[in-house]
Each structure stands twice: as C-alpha cells, then as structure tokens.
From TrEMBL:
This is Interleukin. PANTHER family: INTERLEUKIN-15, INTERLEUKIN-15-RELATED. The lineage of its organism: Eukaryota, Metazoa, Chordata, Craniata, Vertebrata. GO terms for molecular function: cytokine activity; cytokine receptor binding. The keyword Secreted applies. Residues 25-52 form a coiled coil. It is found in: Secreted. It holds the Pfam family IL15.
C-alpha cells in the first residue's frame, strides 16, 4: 500500500512540474496569437492612419530591443489617434507581457544555435531606424510576431 502511495505521489509531482515548466511557452504562444489577431483588427483602418513610425528591421539578435521599439511606437500611435483605442491598448498590454519574465524566449537560428537576447551593443536604438508609414510599420510588426511564433 505504501508503495502505491509513493508511486502516485511521484507521478503527481512530475505532472505538476511538467505543467509548471510548460506554462510560459503556452502563455507566450497565446500572447503572440492574440497580438496577431489584434493587429488584424487594426488592419482594416491602417490606410486611414497618416503617421510615420520608427520601424525596426527585426534582426533576431536584437529581438528584445525590437520589441521595445515596437512597444514605444504603439504608445506613440495610441496618443496620436482616437479610433481603435481598445485595440491599441490590448496590443500595448500584450507587447508588455512579452517583455516581462520568462515569456521572452529564444529563437532558434537556421543552424539550430541559440542566441541570447539581452540588449546587445550592436543593436540600434529605436530612433536610428527608418520612419515608415503606418501600413509598412503594421506589416513589419506582424511579420516580426509571426517569426516569434514559429
């Protein structure tokens, strides 16, 4: 009887550990999918938005800096337009969610080597990127998030 209890306890502990360590990946995936969906909602009004925003080129080595730049520019967009306020607030909140904790995980490069994504010295500041019209900014952000989802 004691052996069955011990085995059940061990199995329960392993299941809990698996669930706990798997949560950030599923949460990150959910955030990315939500962000992409919110950007699709914003897409129908993208031609009405006449604003140029700094648009990072999104290199993998500078992903954290790229995310921070997009977050800053979404804040700028939120201040400049009145429509789509809830959608922009959701996008901003979810981008912030990606930046905190363990949710910002590493991408795999084609050679299957992993890169560290702290802010590197070779990464440009947001203001050093080209300013692009909102439709181009929107497309670049969507592409960047889709790349993170893979």
């Amino acid at each position: 009887m004691m052996c069955k209890v011990l085995i059940f306890s061990c199995i329960s502990a392993v299941m809990l550990m698996t669930a706990a360590y798997g949560a950030p990946l599923s949460e990150k995936k959910h955030l990315l999918e939500t962000l992409i969906n919110d950007l699709q909602l914003l897409e129908k009004n993208k031609d009405k938005i006449d604003l140029k925003l700094y648009t990072p080129n999104g290199t993998q080595e500078c992903s954290r800096r790229t995310l921070q730049c997009y977050l800053t520019e979404i804040g700028t967009l939120e201040n400049e337009i009145e429509e789509d306020g809830n959608c922009l607030q959701n996008i901003k909140k979810n981008l912030q969610g990606l930046m905190v904790g363990n949710l910002f995980t590493q991408f795999k490069k084609k050679s299957n080597k992993k890169k560290c994504f702290s802010i590197r010295t070779g990464c440009t500041i947001c203001e050093a990127n080209d300013k692009k019209e909102f439709p181009a900014f929107h497309q670049e952000l969507t592409n960047f998030l889709r790349a993170m989802l893979k």
